[in-house]
Amino acid sequence: MYWHAEFAWLGDHIAADVLLEADGERFTRITPGVPAPPDARRLPGLTLPGLANAHSHAFHRALRARAQGGRGTFWTWRERMYAVAERLDPGTYRALATAVYAEMALAGVSCVGEFHYLHHRPGGEPYDDPNAMGEALIAAAADAGIRITLLDTCYLTGGIGRPLQGAQLRFGDGTAGDWARRVDSLHDHTGKAGSAHARVGAAVHSVRAVPREQIGAVADWARRHRAPLHVHLSEQPAENAECRDAYGMTPTRLLAECGALGARTVAVHATHLTGEDIGLLGATTTGVCMCPTTERDLADGIGPARDLADAGSPICLGSDQHAVIDLFEEARAVELDERLRTRERGHWTAGSLLAAATWNGHYGLGWPEAGRLEPGSYADLVTVALDSPRTAGAGPAHLAEAAVFAATAADVRHVVVSGREIVRDGRHLLVGNVAAALDAAIAAVTRRA
Questions:
Q1: Which active-site residues does the annotation give?
Q2: For the whole model, what pTM was predicted?
Q3: Pair 412, 425: CB distance under 8 Å
Q4: CATH number for the domain harbouring residue 393
Q5: 90-106 vs 132-144: helix crossing angle, rounded to 10
Q6: Run means of pLDDT, 10 residues per run, the chain, 449 residues
Q7: Which CATH number is 341's domain given?
Q8: Which of 130, 183, 188, 207 is the most exposed place for a label (fewest CB within 10 A)?
């Protein structure tokens, strides 16, 4: 397979006339400065590695535009989210997630990290297959043509010392040991089924949802399986206050004492941190996933991304509740939010933000062999138009800046995942009309709202 890119970002520079060759799922040769062979697919524009959406809750997409009226906070929005969670079953969830993942593919995403806690029937009774909902998500990613890390999430309490109630009953497994036994079955089945597009990781929903004495069991499962471990961290000041009242320490310190930080861990949001928290995360090289469009949509706050990166934490990106699905918007928001916080410009280069959107995210999802245009890496690529009203006029010297600070998901023209063409000329080749698929899937779970 051959693709010829007009321009390509090769990690430390942009090259012209780049021939990308692959054998099956992997790149075999990347050669800049050569003419296009007659049989190569031409890629006009700027070609990047596939993007990694490191934090997703697929069913939250059903709330886009439906939860914008009136005032409120994260906590009032959460009640609307629970109402959608009550209506999903494996069939409707697969349809919705397929449409959402197809929307991601149209935006250049080749791999998603699905933070999955909607496990059981309403009321908490397991399905006949206890992993039916997780299997639906894995199947949805295949239907949409992208890879997935299913971050199966342990969620045991409705707050520190409080039982699950209402929609939360669908999330719980009773104990971390029961959670681990269920996830072992999913992990084993995914491996035996030869799901090359899927890997299973672990997540601690938050220190609110997993008691101190059970966090270590989730971290141990991730270590034994050499799997990624993700956790919502200090998204809300109320979470920090509750943790201090219960345990006498911040959530970050609690995770550190439970052995849950480290190079395979990704802390999501990390918005309201102390200086000590930042030092703990950096010293353990714990990754941090910033989700700026969600953090501003839910009025959460601006996280200390630059301080975290300087301390040693790799930064990746996620669209979380999908107020928009646009990794270019997430990337530039990291810089623009820092400008608002400091009233200074120039905290991140375009290249460092592209790294956050590509290889940092793939690494944090347990796919270290993805996210780069280089031999041996997964043959993932996304081509961004340079002739749209947003990107026109940048000139060859500023193409990375055009992608990060001007392009949107609407400028994505071609997407290849594991050597397979998924998007051509802005059209999804597997799902077809993604807007119609979204309309139908969302209507199925909201028409009774």
A1: 269, 320
A2: 0.96
A3: no
A4: 2.30.40.10
A5: 30
A6: 96 96 97 95 98 96 77 70 87 97 98 97 96 97 98 97 94 97 91 81 98 98 97 95 98 98 98 98 98 92 97 98 97 97 96 98 98 98 97 93 97 98 98 97 81
A7: 3.20.20.140
A8: 188
